[in-house]
Amino acid sequence: MEFIVTMTTVGVMLLYSAPGFALVKCKKIKAESISAFATVLMYVCQSCLVIYSFQKVDYTPALFRNMAIFFALAVLMQAGLMGIYFLAFRKRYKSVRYRIATIAGAFGNCAFMGVPLLEHLLPHYPTAVVFSAVYSISMNLLGWTVASAVIANDKKYIRPRNFFLNPSMIALYVALPLFFTHTYIGGNVFGDAIFLLAKMTTPMCMLIMGMRLACVPLKRVITSRLNYFTLFLKQFIMPLLGLLVVFFLPLEHDMKMTFFIICCCPIASVVLNYSEMIGEGQDVAANLVLLGTFSSIITIPIMMTLSRFI
Q: Please, what is the Cα angle at 74 between 72 and 79, to 5 degrees?
């Protein structure tokens, strides 16, 4: 039953990509305009999603402690995997394909696909959405610094400004005071606008995916061995490592499930978004994200069958 529910949830999300695909094929949207959509997603929708997620629960010291633990686990998991892939691929870093693969193998779609997945699979546990936001913040801190430096092959991105003044951190500066003071902003025009923009993240993400799919020859997506190897690392090895990590930790069951589900999410669309904004390896990133996203209709249900061990 859980296998079917998971497959259906992922399948419905993938349907959102169809209008984007059709608009590009009908020449209503030009390929060079896709990066503008990615910018709106990264700077506006994702920032609103951070605020929205922190509005889902009330602050308690115990919850904040668990959020800190979750943040530490997320950073260690992603940074550790990027470090391993860097050591494995560094001799081939002249090719942008391997630089993109380093990031794609460690970054998952924890917000754009993770939030709706968590809301469907753990409807009794609204805290899961907050943990997803915490994971997303850790990924974006690494994304605006380390991952951007890897993609561009330029260390200039690793600087304090990129760490403290990226969109996710700015959204966090707004979300945390509201969270700590138990201030709920829903029910007014300003708050409802933020919540609406937050809920646009998944459709916008999938629309961009469909747009890019319309620009990329299918043969490039399905014939690259590096693509399949990266897919295997992200959507099989990473969930297994995540399961191994939380299995031995004294955490509540739903918190463990949240971490595992997030680890099961496909290759992150932000890999493509960073690539679009930096101007390096857009086709490579698109191929990986497309392959990862569309294969997730199978990989996520398969990996979720292991959740009984948590």
A: 95
In this structure, how many other beta carbons lie within 10 angstroms of the beta carbon of residue 223? Answer: 11
- Give bridge partners of residue 108 from the DSSP assignment: 267
Write the burial class of residue 262 (CB in 10 Å: 0-12 exposed, 13-18 middle, 19+ buried): buried
Q: Report the C-alpha gap between 72 and 221 in whole angstroms.
A: 34
What are 106's two structure tokens? 């460690």
DSSP bridge pairs for 267: 108
pLDDT in tens, 270-306: 898 788 778 888 888 888 988 998 898 889 989 988 8
If DSSP codes are grouped into helix, strand and coil, which group holds residue 267? Answer: strand
Please give the structure tokens belonging to residue 38.
């990615």
**Among 129, 117, 76, which Cα is nearest to 255's?**
129
The CA-to-CA distance between both ends of the chain, in Å, stands at: 18
> How far is C-alpha 270 from the chain's CA centre?
6
Tens-digit pLDDT profile for residues 104-154:
999 998 877 888 888 888 989 989 989 998 999 999 899 989 999 999 988
DSSP character for 197?
H
Q: Is 281 left (phi over 0), alpha (psi -120 to 50) or beta?
A: left
In 3-state terms, what secondary structure has residue 77?
A: helix
CA distance 82 to 89: 10
**Other beta carbons within 10 Å of 94:** 9
Q: Measure Cα distances from 209 to 37, 39, 41, 74, 174 in Å.
A: 11, 14, 12, 25, 29
- CA 94 from chain center: how many Å? 26
Q: Which amino acid is it at 227? A: N
